[in-house]
Design goal:
Length: 479
């Protein structure tokens, strides 16, 4: 089975949002002949904050120069670019928030942002680059996919949900046709629909046909993989099989949620994916979640996997988007201090507004500490994890269980849904050095997500060194 799909790389550097797997990391990996994945999550906020930080090396502006609509690129620069960068105490001007019918300006910014990220990751080499999106964050996804395709993205990888409609949407977008996605409305049987029309959004631009990228959904069971293969709206090209030890969001355990003494979800036999069953689907697949050793790579290849997807090791490498101070702090903590009971990672069944378990490192100074979480004034000003709900007047609104409790209740949400929820949008922006200063002067604090492999990352650090590169990770895994 090994090498049956010679055109696909063996190693996939997993997509890591927000901007942890940014274009620099993806480019490094792609240049080494493996698959570099940029994160598309909240990419419009990443773009507008980079511009407000002055785009010191000029990369973002160089990519915007290559954007097919210079009219749109110029509008973005006029709105957000600050020569020399904003003073560090000045809050960022926020991007607009998405709705079922997002404004054209916001969709244009989203297309441009995904374009910039993929364009930079692909610049100057012929390696392969993909984009990762979360199915749960539905509203920006079509614009994001289109922007990535305008930049020639080779792969689309999508998790945190069942992305059955994406393959068909990719087919439509590749010929500049209107694509649509069903958007679940909480408590309602009927879905809402969000549309993206390339011709309308890219006004005054001559559009040409685009390459249709490979599409790999992320699955946590072979049954789901089979369902996606057979019932998607178009071609599925392979799968990432992700287990519960992976960084970021995890699929909930099968059956009723049971917690261990520390309060983490308990996974069992039913959550183990059979490689035999995956092999039977006759599509290439990569294993993800605590597979990042050369031995495990060989082992899963021997059982029919094409390779592995790796996140945590790359997230703490030199090229990662995680702010240098947080990366260094993490490495020092792990090197010099014994881990708390249960290890450095806590799988929190409550923190994510998506309702999926979410892993975070138990580092001081982050909102994984109860005192920091409680001291933060709740605010929802980025809104990527909001859910659609039906308002009393019949229109569709958006609400997030991590927003101020009184607002959530006013929108008909239940108080119990707000308990323990964390604003991942703001915390993850802080991880990559783009944290907001809120109106009350409070800076948003980070919440570093990582997989259980975080406990072992010091294996990558060579004697006399205090960090490691993405290239070190690839050389180690392919040794
Ligand atoms: C910091 C971090 C952020 C992540 N964010 C995402 C994400 O936005 N989307 C996604 O599909 N997977 C995400 N993941 C999962 C990775 O893409 C990858 O599948 C996983 O990390 C592989 O397991 P490992 O951490 O043991 O290497 C994230 C992982 C990390 C460490």
């Amino acid at each position: 089975m090994q090498n049956t799909y010679p055109t696909h790389p063996v190693l996939i550097q997993g997509g890591m949002g927000i901007a942890v797997s940014d274009w620099k990391l993806a480019r490094t990996v792609a240049q080494k002949g493996q698959l570099g994945i940029v994160s598309g999550t909240a990419i419009n906020s990443v773009l507008v904050r980079r511009l407000q930080d002055g785009d010191p090396q000029g990369d973002t502006r160089r990519a915007l120069k290559a954007f097919p609509s210079q009219e749109i690129a110029q509008k973005i620069l006029d709105t957000f670019f600050i020569e020399g960068g904003r003073p560090k105490t000045q809050p960022y001007k926020r991007a607009l928030m998405y709705g079922i019918n997002s404004s054209k300006v916001l969709l244009q910014q989203t297309v441009a942002a995904a374009f910039v990220e993929v364009w930079l990751a692909r610049e100057g080499h012929s390696g392969k680059v993909g984009i990762n999106l979360l199915e749960k964050i539905q509203l920006p996804n079509l614009a994001c996919l289109y922007g990535a395709m305008l930049a020639g993205v080779d792969y689309v990888i999508m998790g945190a949900g069942i992305p059955r409609e994406i393959p068909g949407a990719l087919d439509k977008l590749s010929v500049n046709e209107t694509a649509s996605l069903k958007v679940g409305v909480e408590g309602q049987d009927e879905d809402a629909i969000t549309y993206f029309n390339p011709n309308e959004v890219m006004e005054n631009t001559t559009l040409v046909s685009l390459k249709r990228p490979y599409f790999f959904p992320i699955v946590s069971s072979a049954v789901l993989a089979k369902n996606l293969k057979l019932k998607s709206t178009g071609r599925v090209d392979g799968f990432i099989v992700e287990g519960p030890l992976a960084g970021g969001h995890n699929a909930p355990p099968r059956g009723p949620m049971k917690l261990n003494d520390l309060g983490e979800p308990i996974y069992g036999e039913r959550d183990v994916v059979s490689l035999e069953d995956m092999k039977a689907l006759e599509l290439p697949f990569w294993m993800a979640g605590y597979y990042a050793t050369p031995e495990k790579l060989k082992d899963v290849q021997a059982q029919g996997a094409h390779g592995i997807q790796v996140g945590t090791l790359f997230a703490f490498s030199d090229e990662s988007g995680v702010a240098l101070e947080h990366r260094q702090f993490a490495i020092e903590q792990i090197k010099n201090n014994p881990p708390p009971e249960g290890g450095w990672i806590f799988t929190d069944p409550r923190s994510s507004p998506t309702g999926f378990p979410f892993k975070a490192a138990r580092f001081p100074g982050t909102i994984s500490e109860e005192k920091h979480y409680l001291a933060r004034t709740r605010i929802c000003d980025l809104g990527y994890l909001r859910h659609a709900y039906k308002k009393e007047d019949g229109t569709i609104g958006q609400r997030c269980p991590a927003e101020p409790v009184k607002d959530y209740l006013k929108k008909g949400g239940l108080e119990e849904d707000t308990v323990g929820r964390k604003c991942l949008c703001n915390a993850l922006m802080a991880d990559v050095g783009m944290g907001q200063i809120q109106a009350n002067g409070q800076p948003e604090l980070p919440l570093l997500t990582a997989g259980d492999d975080l406990n072992n990352i010091v294996r990558m650090i060579k004697p006399g060194k205090s960090s490691y590169s993405a290239t070190d990770v690839i050389d180690y895994l392919l040794a």
